[in-house]
Amino acid sequence: QVQLVESGGGLVQTGDSLTLSCAASSGYAFLNRAMGWFRQAPGKEREFVAVISWNGGTTTYADSVKGRFTISRDNAKITMYLQMNVLKPEDTAVYYCAAHRERWRWDNVGSPNEYDPWGQGTQVTVSS
After folding, report:
1. What is the pLDDT of residues 80-105, one digit of tens each?
2. Residues facing 69 on adjacent strands
3. Binning pLDDT at 50, 70 and 90, where does residue 29 land?
4. How far is it, in rounded angstroms, from Cα 68 to Cα 46?
5. CA angle 91, 125, 57 (to 5 degrees)
6. Cα gap 119→4, rounded to integer Å
7. Which residue pairs from 110-113 have beta carbons closer than 8 angstroms and sit at least 24 positions apart in sequence?
8. Cα gap 37→8, rounded to integer Å
9. Which residues pair with 115 in a beta bridge?
10. Nearest to 33 by CA among 12, 8, 58
């Protein structure tokens, strides 16, 4: 079974930076697929953060993170990253990575329903 494993979360202060990683166990669920980052805060629905196309040429961000977060991928390492700068308390959440369920598709990339598989999540906590 293909797995996605997130890492890099932690407890930081307002204004700090963190880089999250998402490593795939095989290329099947990573290569030729858009990859996304989502997050879920306590009591809230899972929300879109950022997505990157299969070749890294196209990225889209939620308005709340635009200009502060950068998504990237290294297909040779089958790993995706999320560089998070100028972190705010409202960024506190469990962050999940996921692969678009179909290769070479860019459909509804902001909807969690278009993604499978998912990683287990990594906690990011930003203190004020």
Report:
1. 999 999 999 999 999 999 999 999 99
2. 84
3. confident
4. 20
5. 50
6. 5
7. 110/48, 110/51, 110/60, 110/62, 111/48, 112/38, 112/46, 112/48
8. 13
9. 100
10. 58
**Per-residue pLDDT tens digits for 31-75:** 999 999 999 999 999 999 999 999 999 999 999 999 999 999 999
DSSP single-letter state for residue 107: T
> 112: closest CA among 43, 36, 52?
36
Q: Strand 10-13 to strand 122-127: parallel, antiparallel, or no bridges (unpaired)?
A: parallel
Closest CA to 77 of 31, 8, 12: 31
Residue 8, both tokens? 């890099």
